Amino acid sequence: MEASSGEKIAPEALISKFKITRLLKQDQNGRRMVLLGSINGQQGLLAAERAAFATESLGVLRAFHSAITRVNNLGDNDIYRWYLASSGTDSDGHQSHDLKLNLIWPCTEQHIKKYSDQVVRMVTETPEIYSDYIRPYMRAKREQGRLNWVFNILEGRTEQEDVILRDEGHGPEDAFLMLPDLNWDRKTMGSLHLLALVQRRDIWSLRDLKKKHVPWLQYLRTRVLEGTVKMYPELEEDHLKLYVHYQPTYYHFHIHIVNVMLEAGATQATGKAFGLENIISQLETAADDEASMADVSLTYYLGEASELWTDIYAPLKQGSKPSLDN
After folding, report:
1. Which tens digit of pLDDT belongs to each residue from 122-133?
2. Which of 41, 74, 107 is the last residue in one of the domains?
C-alpha cells in the first residue's frame, strides 16, 4: 500500500500510524466499535472487536489504540484490510490475539455515514420507486468504481489464497467463488461467516432475480452448502443459514453463509436479510419465467444518514420529487 506521498507502508504498520479522531459507533453488546481517524492525512475507519470496550472518553479510546500490539495482517483488498491483534496480556501474562481489526483507508463520507450511530427508518420500495429512483442510483454507484475490490477477487488479482471454493458450474453464468467474510476471525465455527460471489455481472441485487433463475439459485445453494461442510467438516448443512441483503452494501449479487448459532445482529435482522430459500420459493410461484423480484414491493430499513434516505425516501415522504443529481 502506498500513501498519497508515495511512501510504501506495510499493512501491519498502518495500525500504529492510525490517528484517532472520534468514536463513530459502538455496538449495543459492547463487543465492536468503529473509530474515525486518519493515516498520513487521509481519513480511515478502524473497526475493532473484543469482549467489551471502554468508551467513556477520547483519552480512553486513545489508550486502547496505544495498547494494540502483535498486529497480524490477514489480508487486504483495495481500501479494505483485516487483522488479528492483541490488546494486552491474558491471565498468564501472555499476549494473545484477542482483537479482530478491520481497517478502511482511505474511507469516504459514505463509509462514515454507514458506520455512525443514526436513527433508522422503515421504508417500502414499490416497483415504481425501484424503477424510477433506486435502479438509477444503483447504476450510478456501480459506475463510480465501488466494485473494484469485488472484481479484484473475481479476476484473480487479490485474496486468492482465501478462496475456499471456486465453482465453474456448467458455464460462465453458473460460476462463483466462496471466501471468508472480512468480519470473521476465520477460526471460531460458532461465528462462521462466508461470502459466495457470483461471476456473472448482470445481477446487481435480489431485484434482478427472475423465475428463470430458480435452477441457478438452487444450484448455488447446493454447491455452497456442500463446499462449506467439506471445508469445515465439524459443521453440517443444517448448521448453516444463507441469505442476501437488501439494500446490499455493494451492487454485485452475493450470498452470505453463516452459522445459525451466530448472534443475529442488525445485518441479519428483518428488513435487511432475505433468506435465500424464501426468495427461491417466492420466485417459484411467479407467473412466468420473466416475472422478477423487481415486480414486488419490499420493506426494509435505512439509516437517516444514508443517501437512499436523504436523496430519495425523505423527499418522497415530504411529497417532493427526488433529485438523483445530488
Report:
1. 999 999 999 999
2. 107
